[in-house]
Amino acid sequence: MKIEGPGNTGKTGSAKKAKRAGGASGAGFAQSLKGGADAASEESAAVSGGGPASVSSIDLILAIQGVGDATEDEGGRRQPVEWGRDLLDRLDAIRLGLLAGRISPDRLEALGEALARERGKTDDPELGRLLKDIELRARVELAKFRQR
Q1: Phi and psi at residue 56, in whole multiples of 5°?
Q2: Cα 60–66–70 angle (5° rounding)?
Q3: Other CB atoms within 10 Å distance of the CB of residue 59
Q4: How far apart are CA 140 and CA 98, in angstroms?
Q5: Is the pLDDT of residue 141 over 80?
Q6: pLDDT band of 114, cuts 50, 70, 90
Q7: In degrees rounded to 5, what are phi and psi of residue 23?
Q8: Contact in structure between 131 and 118 (CB atoms under 8 Å)
Q9: Of 24-28, 86-90, 95-99, which range is least confident?
Q10: What is the pLDDT of residue 3?
Q11: Three-class SS of residue 53?
Q12: Comparing C-alpha atoms, which of 121, 116, 119 is closest to residue 142?
């Protein structure tokens, strides 16, 4: 796809001055700021009473740190996540090889074998179909490469 320059942007018109809603003094705006500051100070005074309902930022940070990471080994999840990342790296290398016109048949064979091994280990039917499709694509690219 060819992208051309911005082309003719046309002429711009002159800007018009906006009318002020509150007059020239701006006292209404200043008054609303004052009222908001008073309400905020009242609210902070109520919260800083130190009651049991107040939560400090340190408590929040400690609570967040207590939550487990999605890649931690809870229920045997770490190995599939690492394998998925490895698979994505292999697929990216193959994509770059296809775009450059230089793809290694060894990489395609290794990918096909790894997918065949791992496909039987999954209980998820959708993931199984996806792995089967990727394996098929790797075999097709390998067959194309061997025909050259």
Answers
A1: -85, 165
A2: 120
A3: 10
A4: 13
A5: no
A6: confident
A7: 85, -175
A8: yes
A9: 24-28
A10: 65
A11: coil
A12: 116
CA distance 112 to 131: 10
Token pair recorded at residue 52: 């049991």
Radius of gyration of the chain (CA): 31
Cα first-last separation, the chain: 29
Q: How many alpha carbons lie under 13 Å from residue 108 in its C-beta half-sphere?
A: 19
Q: d(Cα 107, Cα 128) in Å, to the nearest integer?
A: 21
pLDDT tens digits, 87-97: 888 888 878 88
Give me the torsion for CA of 79, 83, 89, 92, rounded to 10°: -140
- What CA–CA distance (Å, rounded) separates 80 from 118? 9
Helices marked H in the chain — which ranges?
A: 27-47, 57-66, 78-100, 105-119, 125-147
Average pLDDT over residues 23-51: 59
Q: Which two tokens stand for residue 77?
A: 């999840």
Q: Residue 79: is it exposed, middle or buried by C-beta count within 10 angstroms (0-12/13-18/19+)?
A: exposed
Residue 107 corresponds to which tokens in the numbers above? 């990489």
Task: Give the phi and the psi of residue 48 in degrees, each rounded to 5.
Answer: -75, 10
User: In 10 A of CB 144, how many CB atoms?
Assistant: 12
- Provide the pLDDT for residue 146: 80
